[in-house]
Design a protein that fits this description.
13% of the residues lie in helices and 43% in strands. The chain is built from two helices and ten strands; from the N terminus they run H-H-E-E-E-E-E-E-E-E-E-E. Strands 1, 2, 3, 4, 5, 6, 7, 8, 9 and 10 form a ten-stranded mixed beta sheet that branches. A hairpin with an 8-residue loop joins strand 1 and strand 2. The longest helix is centred in the first third of the chain and has 17 residues. The termini are far apart.
Length: 179
């Protein structure tokens, strides 16, 4: 019985001893490991990032931006993440026989000294499960993951479907007297 009690106390002592471990010595958490991933890949920049909110709740939104690689080995954009969005997919708009359609893209190559634009009618990122906390006029963060695991993050302006920040359409150039 005495051996059983000692074994039980020893089992309790081990976890309690680790409670005195300093924060510097603590094992990394999964979130800390993700946060420690390489950021801002050298020579690669994301500019003009913009999120266009869905036309109706539950529908997808879209992200546009420009990626420039100043130098170094060529890379590919392997994935995109947008804060406040459940899922993203890279797509490209293609026209066949006069009909435009979207198709998924697994990776987007970026070459040294080149710029790749994600824009309407071309490459873009579809945003699914857009949180209602994303509001026109605010900003969120977009993070691109490269084929080598490096990440590039940039702020993205949030716009309404009409392209404006407040959701109002500008009709100042239209003649409304005939309506």
């Amino acid at each position: 019985m005495r051996k059983l009690v000692l074994a039980g106390l020893s089992a309790l002592a081990l976890p309690l001893a680790s409670c005195g471990q300093s924060a510097d010595e603590a094992a990394p958490t999964p979130a800390a490991t993700i946060d420690a991933a390489p950021q801002n890949a050298p020579g690669i920049n994301v500019t003009d990032a913009m999120i266009r909110l869905p036309a109706a709740p539950g529908r997808p939104g879209v992200a546009y931006f420009t990626v420039t690689q100043g130098g170094g080995a060529p890379h590919s954009i392997a994935a995109a993440y947008v804060e406040g969005v459940g899922r993203t997919e890279m797509h490209e708009t293609v026209t066949e026989n006069g009909v435009s359609k979207m198709q998924p893209v697994k990776a987007v190559p970026i070459e040294s000294g080149k710029t790749v634009q994600f824009k309407a009618g071309g490459l873009h990122v579809m945003l699914f499960e857009v949180a209602d906390t994303l509001k026109a006029g605010a900003t969120t963060e977009i993070t691109l993951t490269l084929d080598n695991g490096d990440k590039i993050s940039a702020p993205a302006k949030i716009e309404s479907i009409g392209g404006g920040l407040g959701g109002e359409m500008d009709h100042s150039g239209h003649d409304m007297s005939e309506m």
